[in-house]
Amino acid sequence: MANTHGRGLVSEKNPSAGVIAHLRNMARTTEFDVADCIALLARTPAALDALLRGLPDTWIRSNEGRTAGSEPTWSPFDIVGHLVAGERHDWMPRARIILDQGEARAFDPFDRLAQNRESQGKSFDQLLDEFARLRQENLAALRSLNLQPEDLSRRGKHPSLGVVTLSQLLATWAVHDLTHLHQLSRVMAHQYRDAVGPWNVYLGVLRCAGHSA
Amino acid sequence: MANTHGRGLVSEKNPSAGVIAHLRNMARTTEFDVADCIALLARTPAALDALLRGLPDTWIRSNEGRTAGSEPTWSPFDIVGHLVAGERHDWMPRARIILDQGEARAFDPFDRLAQNRESQGKSFDQLLDEFARLRQENLAALRSLNLQPEDLSRRGKHPSLGVVTLSQLLATWAVHDLTHLHQLSRVMAHQYRDAVGPWNVYLGVLRCAGHSA
After folding, report:
1. CA A15, CA A37: separation in Å to the nearest integer?
2. Which residues of A touch B201 (CB under 8 A)?
3. What is residue B158's predicted lDDT score, i.e. its pLDDT?
4. A10, A97, B147, B167 — which has fewest CB within 10 A?
5. Contact at 8 Å (CB) between B28 and A91?
6. Which residues of chain A lie closer than 8 angstroms to B30, CB-CB?
7. B56 in contact with A at a CB cutoff of 8 Å?
């Protein structure tokens, strides 16, 4: 059933009512709301803590063993280290640049492999603690900005993507959490790829090939 | 970079050392261990609770609005209801059938849409509570079986897949948690598909089309 999610229907010559409903549905996303976004951002550290703290290294330190050129895929240890780096270098520093300097100054590029240096010598529990503390501090700082609706459309300059808005940055912060939760579940599921035996046909996560740009 | 994860390398005519390392890595999964499996199963309810409890309905009740034939994709509310149904009807009942009757009696088919009936009239907090309670009870029952290594290879009969083993059932229970965490992160990310603006190119979860069989 390659067409499970109705993909490809757009090329139908005679769109049925079902197709029209499908196209209408595809466009239905949620309008950005700062409070809703913060509600999610505030929960991620505790969710990862509850899922991962105390698990044996076989879950925490294993990746999928695949190579992208010379780059291995990430383990849960790598992923949490990456989220820590984002709290330090990416989200709130960029929000401040937008509010203070607008498009006059492009964001500093974000090193998506910073964790390879910055996690060195740290335990996994330390990374979980650090993520929780930094996220809490950053959300306190965000709330203290007391953003008004008109602030959300203020513009900044991304070094590769060009003009972006503050609301796009904040929405991306939340979806970045979710994209790494998505990656984490895939990497962990990989460890039991063989162990599940014939059930692998029912377990969609085992067919996810990742979606890195 | 379509080849991010080294897919397609197997068709190279002259496999390099890199390709050989890649193929070796692809096979590296983790050997099944009951204690490691239980460690993960025990954490899922608290992880979902920390991530989801108290979030506004815009996160909890929204799906991706896509249709697979007539079946909409699932919201976080649907997903947690499905996990509750699995605790009631699927995992431990099947383990008991394997131990008590082996291949003599096929498992009852599992209704993957049972939540559409069974979640009716319940609040999301009730579903989270129910999932935590049932999972705890099921893991207590599993531990009380005091499984020995030779028990793990005991065989049962799946109504569609044929012969399966107890260890495959238990590994599938854990990967089933992960496949729904994977789905949940995708469905939630979808809500901000438009809100992230140009950043969508960096957010792999927004390119996941689901992987249902």
Report:
1. 36
2. 161, 213
3. 97
4. A10
5. no
6. 58, 62, 191-192, 195
7. yes
* B26 Rama sector, left if φ>0, alpha if ψ -120 to 50, beta otherwise: alpha
Give the separation between CA A86 and CA A81, rounded to whole angstroms. 9
CA geometry: angle A75, A78, A81, nearest 5 deg: 150
3-state helix, strand and coil shares in percent for chain A, rounded to the nearest 5: 60, 5, 35
pTM recorded for the entire structure: 0.87
CB contact (8 A) between residue A4 and residue B210: yes
Q: What is the per-residue pLDDT across B8-44, written as a single tens digit (0 to 9) for each?
A: 222 333 334 444 444 444 446 778 999 999 999 999 9
Write out residues in chain A with pLDDT < 50, as ranges: 1-27
Chain B residues near residue A66 by CB distance under 8 angstroms = 5-6, 22, 25-26
- Please state, in angstroms and rounded to a whole number, the distance separating the CA atoms of residues B187 and B212: 14
Residue-wise pLDDT for A85-124, tens only, equals 999 999 999 999 999 999 999 999 988 889 889 999 999 9
What's the rounded Cα separation, in Å, for the pair A90 and A98?
A: 12
With beta carbons under 8 A apart, name residues in chain A contacting B199. 158, 161, 164, 168-169, 171-172, 175
What is the sign, positive or negative, of the torsion defined by CA atoms of A179, A185, A188, A192? negative
Per DSSP, which regions of chain A are E strands?
A: 67-68, 71-72, 155-158, 162-165
Cβ atoms of A45 and A177 closer than 8 Å: no
Q: Does B201 touch chain A (CB under 8 A)?
A: yes
Beta strands in B29-181 (DSSP E): 67-68, 71-72, 155-158, 162-165
